[in-house]
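Box 3.1 A note on notation
Throughout this textbook, protein chains are presented in two layers. The first layer is the amino acid sequence; the second is a token string describing backbone geometry. Keep the layers aligned when reading.
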Amino acid sequence: MGTLATGMGQMTHASVFRRWGNRSMTPGHGTQMMSSMRTEAAREGEVMALTLAEMVATARAEAREISPADAARAVNDAELGLIVDVREPAEYQKGHVPLAVNVPRGVLELRADPASPAAEAALTADPSARILVYCTRGPGARSLLAAQTLRSMGYPHVEVLGGGLMAWAEAGLPVEGATEPATA
């Protein structure tokens, strides 16, 4: 957690920890706790900064991870509505999961919002569809944060590919556009 302010702010944050401290960290609780802390900090005129590690830990606690074998089965059984590669375009071009669309993490919000002029039609067509996101390894920061973002934007069925593209390739599953083995 970020550094807690002293005085009244410290008591406010302590009350949040007492309220949430005895709850198990099931999906959504980490985000709810952080939201509660931010709300109470804002009432006191404070800003609560989070580190990347804290953001990723919260996203990891909420993530639904799926193995490459289960993901391949879901693809073969037409159970996945969409596969989203959240890496940069150059990484995508070097190799990606077949049928994946490339929506880099840095522009995900713009591409996932149906009201955005930059919306990705494949992504916004059915927000209730089962979506698989992945990055190179992982689940890594990009795929975890992407899954969290999509869920917060109204995409309830988002899963993260365990081990990312590297695990997919290591499982002997097809990689399109691969000119060299997947690497970090």
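The mean pLDDT is 81. Strands lie at 65-66, 82-85, 101-102, 131-134, 158-161.
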